[in-house]
Amino acid sequence: MLHPLLLRQLKKAGIDPDRADPSLVHLLDRVSSAYRETDQDRYLLERSVQISSDEMRQLHEQIAKERDTLSTIMYSIPIGIYAVDLEGRIIHTNPAARDLLGVENDDCIKNTPIDELIELYQSDAVINIPIYLLPLILLGKEFNAENIQMKRGQRLMPVSISVNPVRAKSELVGAVVVLTDITSQKQAEAELRQARSNAEAANKAKSEFLANMSHEIRTPMTAILGFADTLADYSKSGDCLPEISEAAATIKHNGRYLLNIINDILDLSKIEAGKMTIETAEQSPCLIVGEVVSLMRIRADEKKLPLNLEYKKRYS
Asked: Of 84, 118, 123, 126, nearest to 99 (Cα)?
């Protein structure tokens, strides 16, 4: 069966293949086979073109999606990002970068040298040293710095800066400059320093107050203990009632106990300074309990409450 296209062409030429010479029939069969091979080649070519077209469309959609994602991320970053070429001209910025410059869109600053738009200074004790970005871009190395001042209007604003080189096939083609407004961070640091200073001043005032109060209490307590010693010595002569002797001993004992408390208060400053030392010494539980009973006996007697201490076994 000859190819349909070949049959139409023979018909137009007035040739009937069924009545053709055998040699012509053989030639027509070969031509028909060539037509069929051509059809197959064309089909494969069209199929390849269709597949390539679909792949190109999918690739284009994927690239567009990734571009939109990157654009969304860049527009959402709250720090200033400036893409520049090797001549330091701005190629692209994000909204945060334009906010730092006080402009609304890229058209106002595109292809403008970045050193003409951004004035940076390294703070010094006496003067502000200008920083130029183009040499850093041409250097082709990463550069990071803080405590940089950026001029905005009539004032200087603290920023941190980062310059990152951009390469295409190992060839330097530009850089990405990142500027971050650190005004809030600096304010927080200043507030923290002020709070620390206030806390240190308050702690110093407390220590001074404790020292002064302890001194004011110690002075009259020393006099009370002196009179208690005199009264105790007088009671030993036998001219005083036993109750007076016991009262004098209680005053003397509790006065010394109060002096120990005052000394403990003074030791607070040593504890805060990390200079407090701990000593290990033998103590008598019976003696400690007896001191507590002696301290509380006066109040118990005032309320007519019995307060007795008994030892089943005395410990030294």
From this structure: 118
Name the burial class of residue 101, with classes exposed (0-12), middle (13-18) and buried (19+) by CB atoms within 10 angstroms of its CB. Answer: buried
Q: Which position has the token pair 């208060």?
A: 265
Task: Give me the helices (H) in 89-161, please.
Answer: 95-101, 114-117, 133-139
By C-alpha distance, which of 89, 119, 77 is closest to 102? 119
Q: How many residues does the structure list for the chain?
A: 316
Per-residue pLDDT reduced to its tens digit, 85-138: 999 899 988 888 888 888 888 788 888 998 888 888 887 655 677 888 888 888
User: What 3-state class would DSSP assign to 86?
Assistant: coil
Token pair in block for residue 250: 């209680």
Residue among 288, 308, 312 at smallest CA distance from 300: 308
User: Whole-prediction pTM value?
Assistant: 0.52
pLDDT, position 177: 92
